[in-house]
Design a protein that fits this description.
Elements: H1 2-57, E1 78-80, E2 95-101, H2 106-124, E3 128-134, H3 147-161, H4 166-175, H5 187-196, H6 201-204, H7 213-225, E4 233-237, E5 247-248, H8 262-272
Parallel strand pairs: 2-3
Antiparallel strand pairs: 1-3, 2-4, 4-5
Helix pairs in contact: 2-4, 3-4, 3-5, 3-7
């Protein structure tokens, strides 16, 4: 009888112990859920605050403090002449090609490798009016160094102060492109690349002044307003038409511009009138 009572008490004790363990486990799960919820709310709030603050910091291209490189137009594009001088518009009777790029964007590097020589040739023979848009959408992939913005500011500086070296600088920047998730190139490395293609040292020394940083921010914001979904993006207008008449080119429906020669052929067809960009 005593043995039965002892067994009964032991089972009761084990049951209480199991119940207490279950309660503690539930308490831990509840605390974790509450903690995650609190963190999510904090992050959401921080994101909203950042958006509000960031939005307030974004100038438009008409702002007095958004200093633009010489010749840049109201879309944020830097025109390239037939002799590869930045800031000087190409022929009006040729298709207009706007190229949006970010110097941290690996796909932009692939685009440059596939189409760079063709674009240079089309600029040289006057078959395209090229506008380059150096924008900064990938700063978050350079560990807080804002490489995309610094690189775009450097490009704008070259376009303004050493325009004959702009295209060579752009090519060299992609040849030395850093990987996403790294610090990107340092200011000294960017300056060295510029000097290496002929940019005067005194011009490269001004990159850190950030003279065109606000213009880069404004041009990046403008690109979003103009329907640019990312980089690289191509926008084209028929010969004689303005930027506003053009449209963003889609690979599926317009031109597979990662296939060698496809973009050059498309531009030739547009100039010949056998293909119309806009209906």
């Amino acid at each position: 009888m005593a043995s039965n009572k002892s067994n009964k008490n032991e089972r009761a004790a084990q049951a209480r112990k199991a119940a207490q363990a279950q309660v503690k486990a539930q308490e831990r799960r509840t605390a974790a859920i509450i903690g995650i919820s609190v963190i999510a709310v904090i992050l959401l709030f921080a994101g909203v605050v950042y958006f509000i603050v960031r939005s307030g910091d974004v100038p438009d291209l008409e702002s007095a403090d958004a200093v633009a490189p010489t010749g840049a137009d109201s879309s944020g594009g830097i025109p390239i002449s037939s002799d590869a001088i930045a800031g000087v518009a190409g022929p009006e009777d040729a298709a207009r090609l706007d190229v949006y790029l970010d110097f941290m964007c690996p796909i932009c590097g692939q685009f440059e490798e596939t189409n760079g020589e063709d674009i240079d040739a089309m600029v040289a023979d006057g078959s395209v009016a090229l506008y380059v848009h150096p924008i900064s959408i990938l700063d978050r992939y350079s560990n807080g160094t804002n490489f995309s913005t610094r690189a775009a500011n450097a490009a704008a500086t070259v376009a303004d102060a050493a325009p004959e070296h702009f295209m060579a600088f752009q090519t060299a920047m992609f040849e030395n492109q850093p990987a996403e998730g790294t610090d990107g190139l340092s200011d000294t490395e960017i300056a060295d690349i510029a000097v290496g293609v002929g940019v005067p040292q005194e011009v490269a020394d001004t990159f850190t002044d950030g003279e065109f940083t606000k213009w880069v921010i404004a041009a990046t914001d403008q690109s979003s307003q103009d329907g640019v979904p990312g980089t690289p993006t191509l926008r084209m207008a028929d010969p004689g038409d303005s930027f506003a008449d053009g449209k963003v080119l889609e690979q599926e429906n317009d031109v597979m511009y990662f296939q060698p020669g496809a973009l050059a052929q498309y531009v030739a067809d547009v100039n010949a009138g056998t293909v119309t960009v806009t209906e």
